[in-house]
Amino acid sequence: MRRRFYAPPDAFAPDGATVSLAREEAQHLRGVLRLKPGDEAFVFDGEGREYACLVATVAAGGRRAAGETATLEVRGRVEPQRPESPLDLTLAVALLKGEKFDLVVQKATELGVWRIVPVETKRADVRLVREESEGRKGKGSEGRDAGGRVARWRRLALEAAKQSGRARVPEVCAPVAFAELMAASTANAAAHKDAANVDEERRLFFTERGGRGLAETLREWTTRPAKLTALVGAEGGWDDEEIARASEAGWHAVTFGGRVLRAETAAVVVTGLLQHLYGDLV
């Protein structure tokens, strides 16, 4: 099994000969795996590239490993431990209560999504505090600010990518309002309406009512999509106005037939189905 570590592209030396690990990764290398200079390790950059390396230097830090450092010698690029899905899949999910969104981020990363978009909807019970209003938040909103939650989700995505052997870490976007998401998709469709690859980009809107089955919807597609966005609703369901707006914006409404799934379950199921149909989950 590979001993894998993460370092962003800017952690590599300009000549690509060495790479420096951040404190947490360096502490894991020395304190947990107990690697020493000369030991083999692998480093991925979160953008799909992975490198075989040798530990060059390891320096222990002070209290709580505050000064932990590690430098590795890059021996060459290698194929990632697990291949990336060929499907450029975006999973847009309404904000969920408690740790449910954490679960979605972890499982969607394991299943190979390229990006995750948290969406603010009318019936969602979660409301995140925007950065510009953080100074006015009360005690009850602690931990619910957008910046803190997004930072947590990005850490979870990194951990899940490392665990599952991926060299790409999914982008976790800042929360976006439903209306903003619809407006952006409408503008994008208008900008590419005459493009040759317009049929390769598809958007699916999963709803508890007003949609058709997934198989029925996909049978109408004449080309295999290279890019897909799947939007999964809130725990309280979609508002009628949101359903109408999605239809106007050109999203394909899809239901699960007789099944009523929890939002977090639906997000994971949708990702698995689409990776099976158009990705590499076979």
Question: Care to describe what's here?
Answer:
It is a single chain. By secondary structure, this protein is of the alpha/beta class. It has two domains: 4-78, Hypothetical PUA domain-like, domain 1 (Ribosomal Protein L25, Chain P), CATH 2.40.240.20; 88-278, 3-Layer(aba) Sandwich (Alpha/beta knot), CATH 3.40.1280. The chain has seven helices and 13 strands. Helix 2 (100-110) links the parallel strand 6 and strand 7 (115-120). Helix 2 runs parallel beside helix 3 (146-164) and helix 2 (100-110) runs parallel beside helix 7 (263-278). The longest helix has 19 residues, at 146-164. The model is unreliable at 132-143 (pLDDT under 50).
Summarize the entry for a quick read.
The protein is built from 7 helices and 13 strands. It has 282 residues and is of the alpha/beta class.
Q: How many domains would you count in the coordinates? A: 2
What is the CATH H-level superfamily of the largest domain?
SPOUT methyltransferase, trefoil knot domain
Share in β-strands:
15-25%
Uncertain ranges: 132-143
Which CATH architecture of the largest domain? 3-Layer(aba) Sandwich
Radius of gyration: 21 Å
What sequence of helices (H) and strands (E) makes up the elements? EEHEEEEHEHEEHEEHEHEH
Number of separate strands: 13
Please count the helical segments. 7
Instruction: Give the overall shape.
Output: elongated
Q: Which structural class matches the secondary elements?
A: alpha/beta
User: Percent range for helical residues?
Assistant: 25-40%
CATH-defined topology of the largest domain: Alpha/beta knot
* Euclidean distance between termini CA atoms: 23 Å
Task: Characterize the main sheet.
Answer: 8 strands, parallel
